Amino acid sequence: MSEHTSTPAPYSVTVDVGGRPLILETGKIAKQANGAITARYGDTVVLTTACMNSTPNDRDFLPLTVDYKENTYSAGKIPGGFFKREGRPSEKEVLTSRLIDRPMRPLFPEAWRNETQIVSMVLSADSANDPDVIAVTSASAAAFCSDLPFETPIAAVRAGHVNGQLVINPTVAEQKTSTINIVIAASEEGIVMGESGALEVSEETVVEALEFGHAAVKKIIAAIRDLIVQI
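Predicted structure:
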């Protein structure tokens, strides 16, 4: 993979995910990062940057830091009351950071020792599209489109079961009535991570949901590969 830490012009790809367009763009924002992706899904927009130290350290583990930020300004709100600023990370931010970390960490080379940081910031949040799975996809795309040694792109979707039908990335309202809530992070070859909850559904339905979600993930990864061809 050729080095492309800075891009001369914005590049973007669009892929249909669950009946709505997912737009991935690079080369316009955060050009000083090793890789940066702006992902738009509906009116939810997530900016993810991937950066690394150019020299390795002497630690005996992968020094990867993942930080997901969901500030209130993204929903058009400003903190009120005594505290006028954002406080410590919320439970949702901590869990989403782990959601990004778990499928990506094993895909870095075992001997990789350079300090690596992946930061996802929600720039805009609508009331329908949850930014957590979008952040996982944009984090993978940012690392894959950079000069980091991340050579197996992944993507993530949420599979739901609404009114007897499998749905990819159900809206926030649909999630309340869905009998399945499975976050699927996968590569082209197979599922890397699954995080789920369900209400007494059959094993066959769960397997169908996993296969349904993996098929959607493959479409997103194909778009990520199309994006890197443009760069």
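Summary: Residues 1-7 have pLDDT under 50 and may be disordered.
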